[in-house]
Write a structure and sequence with these properties.
Helices cover 31% and strands 37% of the residues. It has 150 residues and is α+β, with helices and mostly antiparallel strands. The chain has a single domain, classed as Gcn5-related N-acetyltransferase (GNAT) (Aminopeptidase, 3-Layer(aba) Sandwich). The protein has a seven-stranded mixed β-sheet, sandwiched between helices. A hairpin with a 4-residue loop joins strand 3 and strand 4. The model has no long low-confidence stretch (mean pLDDT 95).
Length: 150
């Protein structure tokens, strides 16, 4: 596995990975309606690209395929961390998160899904609060979590 910085050409593949992962991996914890508003098939590639360029954004490549990606902003907000369903439990999420955490001193904050909560708890993140987020009139549960990095 190679971890490298995000490149603009990665956008379409990341969008597909995100959509596929949410609709397969997270399906055990969320309804189809929730999954559909969380990860729409046609996410705006320009918005995604801009967001990735504003953050420290990395991708994990296995062979010729992107196996996962993540990004964190300069204030320590870990925005996205997704691993392709075919590459779960192979250390890819851990490797990405390790690299993102190395960029920050102080608090890291993330909004973890029900599915991702145990991963972050194993890494020492603490739940600050459970919250309901509204998207297109549909409520999704997630957890505001934080970790102190020294």
């Amino acid at each position: 596995m190679v971890i490298r910085e995000y490149q603009t050409l990665d956008g379409k593949e990341l969008r597909e990975l995100f959509y596929h992962t949410v609709h397969t991996v997270n399906a055990k914890d969320y309804t189809k309606e929730q999954l559909d508003v969380w990860a729409e098939r046609q996410a705006d590639l320009e918005q995604w690209n801009q967001s990735f360029q504003e953050h420290y954004s990395i991708v994990a490549v296995e062979g010729d395929m992107i196996a996962g990606f993540g990004d964190i902003d300069k204030n320590g907000y870990l925005d996205r961390l997704f691993v392709h369903a075919d590459f779960l439990r192979k250390g890819i999420g851990t490797a990405i998160c390790d690299r993102l955490e190395q960029k920050i001193k102080g608090k890291i904050l993330t909004h973890a899904s029900i599915t991702a909560r145990p991963f972050f708890e194993e890494r020492g993140y603490k739940v600050i609060k459970e919250q309901k987020v509204e998207r297109s009139g549909v409520l999704l549960t997630n957890f505001v979590m934080e970790k102190e990095i020294n």
